[in-house]
Design a protein that fits this description.
single chain; about 190 residues; mainly alpha; two-stranded antiparallel sheet
Amino acid sequence: MKRLLLPLLLASSAVFAQDAVPTVRICDSSGCSDRPRDSATFQPEATDPVAEQRLLQLTEIARDDPRAAYDLGLRYFRGDGVPKDSYLAIKWMREAGERGVVPAQLALGRFYLMGLEEMGPDPAEAESWLSMAAAKGNKEAQKLLPQARAAKKDEKRAYEWREAQHKTWYGGWNGAYPYYGYWGPNGWKYR
């Protein structure tokens, strides 16, 4: 009798396990509940059609007017009325700076001198933008320009040191030291 009951119990539990959908307990603003594991819980925020229309209009204007490009870059940098996005902030700031907007040139010089979020500093680029703004009489750019030049020299020295170390250190590792093992006809072998 016991031999007959055990397979019957195992078979019924396997059928029950197949019918049961794996769930997970999720708590959100609507309360806590058990939900299927494969359910989607992300609900994007509702977009404001008026804000989207304003952004489209400002983007169109920014293509023609460099001051609007600077404004748009500043909005992306601050997250003011648009999602904060450092890539788009630099894109629109460069657009304005290349077309002669001095505050955009100064902002780009500061971004590249200090680094912006995931982007590290680039003293050579900072010097370039600050030189443009300083040439047009911007006092702050004139004050920051020596800092950018000093940072550029420091970076050049650091680069030269890394290159010298690379040649001496990696040169030995690239060819002076033999491998202990080699691939032979019957697989990997060690000397």
